[in-house]
Amino acid sequence: MKNLGNMLKQAQQMQSRMQEMQAKLEAMEVEGASGAGMVKVTLSGKGDLRRVTIDPSLMTADEKEVLEDLLVAAHADAKQKVESTMAEEMQKATAGLNIPGGLGGLKLPF
Asked: What SS3 class is residue 36?
């Protein structure tokens, strides 16, 4: 029974830390850039698009395809940073908790 009590305590700690982490991720903003900063994309910590900034020199018909490619690259950069930050926050949230089997590559839905 002592082991069950410890598991319940750890589950409550984990739930509290996860709620804190979710709030922190929602408030956080991460910027990705491409084209030497000519295109910037800002995502929330949960991956929601917040802002796009485009250098005016790219706003020509001749630069349409370049601009499209730079937008995709900037988004990919921001997304990678969000995922990296999320992994770090998850590690902090689960630090010190003895979770049997770990998280085993578990991906969370946010």
From this structure: coil
Number of H helices, E strands in the chain: 2, 3
Amino acid of residue 9:
K
For residue range 58-67, list pLDDT tens digits in order.
999 999 999 9
Contact 51, 42 (CB under 8 A): yes
Q: How far apart are the C-alpha atoms of 16 and 82, rounded to whole Å?
A: 21
3-state secondary structure of 52: strand
Q: Which of 82, 103, 104, 107 is nearest to 14 (CA)?
A: 103
Digit-coded pLDDT (tens) for 40-57: 999 998 899 999 999 999
Which structure tokens are listed for 16?
Answer: 């509290």
Bin 98: left if φ > 0, else alpha if -120 < ψ < 50, else beta.
Answer: beta
